[in-house]
Structures are given as structure tokens and as C-alpha cells.
TrEMBL record:
This is Winged helix DNA-binding domain-containing protein. It holds the Pfam family HTH_34. It comes from Sphingomonas hengshuiensis. Residues 15-92 form the Winged helix DNA-binding domain.
Length: 101
């Protein structure tokens, strides 16, 4: 079995953080994710689009109280890709720690 590889789609810091937040919930509202990551709507939208195009995130929109709301969720493929990326990061970190420290 080959070692897990870093995923270039997930690797960008904002997308990595978004995947981490999404991995801990069934669904997260766009505004909550935006505030958690401390980015603008446009920045988060760009990252969500890249994750969605890769098949890693599912976007659901609905009107509530006359306002359009957006919810995001990791897909099964997204969860698997995120887990593999985290494993690759852990292996990389473990390989770079000097012995005896």
C-alpha cells in the first residue's frame, strides 16, 4: 500500500481549515464557516467552489425567513480525501522531528 499523498485541492490553508470544520459536523452554515475561518464571503465562496468542483463538498441552499441560506457538507469523497491528507501531514511531521526530542 502506498503512503498517503498531500491533496493539492485541500492543501491551501483556508480549504484545509474548512474541511476540518466540516469534518466535525453533518452540515455547517456558510456564515458560520466564514466567521470561523475569518475570511470574506468572496474568499470562502472561491474555496468552496474549488472543493465542490473536486467533489469534496456538497452545497445546499434554501430560503428561510425570506433570506437565502447556504449549508455546506463534506461528501464521502471529501471525508476520505481529508482523512488521507491529514494522515500524509502527520507522516510528514513525524519524519521531520529530530530523534531524541
Amino acid at each position: 500500500m502506498s503512503a498517503p499523498a498531500l491533496d493539492p485541492v485541500i492543501h491551501a490553508p483556508a480549504r484545509l481549515q474548512a474541511c476540518a470544520v466540516l469534518s466535525s459536523a453533518d452540515e455547517v452554515e456558510f456564515a458560520l464557516l466564514r466567521d470561523t475561518l475569518e475570511v470574506s464571503d468572496s474568499v470562502l465562496s472561491k474555496h468552496v467552489k474549488q472543493l465542490e468542483e473536486a467533489g469534496y463538498v456538497k452545497v445546499r441552499k434554501a430560503a428561510i425567513g425570506g433570506r437565502q441560506r447556504t449549508w455546506l457538507a463534506l461528501t464521502r469523497a471529501g471525508s476520505k480525501a481529508f482523512a488521507g491528507h491529514v494522515k500524509a501531514l502527520q507522516q510528514l511531521a513525524a519524519a521531520t522531528v529530530p530523534s531524541g526530542e
